Amino acid sequence: MFIALPQVVTGGQYDVDVTLEAPNKEIIYRQTKTQFDSYSFVPKMTGTYVACFSNEFSTFSHKLVYMDFQVGDEQPLPGIGEHVTVMTQVRKFLWNIAQIAYVVS
Predict the structure, then answer these.
(1) Domain-located, residue 26
(2) What is the distance between the alpha carbons of residues 94 and 25, in angstroms, rounded to a whole number?
């Protein structure tokens, strides 16, 4: 499985056009004026997949776009499980709140 996660980080109305093209030039994903999306698919062929971003509808606003590609099930980095970060503490806190809410309800 392959996951594409485009997100506009800054600029204008936080939107861009996005296309994802397969190696045979087939457009397998297209979104217009999107801010954030997640698209999952199983590649049907090997080769180079191309992600294209367009801001042509917004002549005055520059955009900064974050794009994350995930291929298959990623294993956590070694040592991450033992490493406490702010996000792991937040997740633990939210999990505790959810458990309390479940018990109360």
Answers:
(1) yes
(2) 44
Cα–Cα distance between 31 and 99 in angstroms, integer? 38
- Which two tokens mark 31? 């979104």
**HSE (CB half, 13 Å, CA atoms) of 12?**
19
- For 39-97, how does the pLDDT look when each residue is reduced to its tens digit (9 = 90+)? 787 888 888 888 888 887 777 777 777 777 777 776 666 665 555 555 566 777 777 77
Q: How would you list the strands of the sheet with 64-71, edge to edge?
A: 39-41, 2-10, 64-71
Global confidence as pTM? 0.56
Question: Tokens in use for 24?
Answer: 């045979």
Domain count across the chain: 1
Range of the domain at 10: 2-73
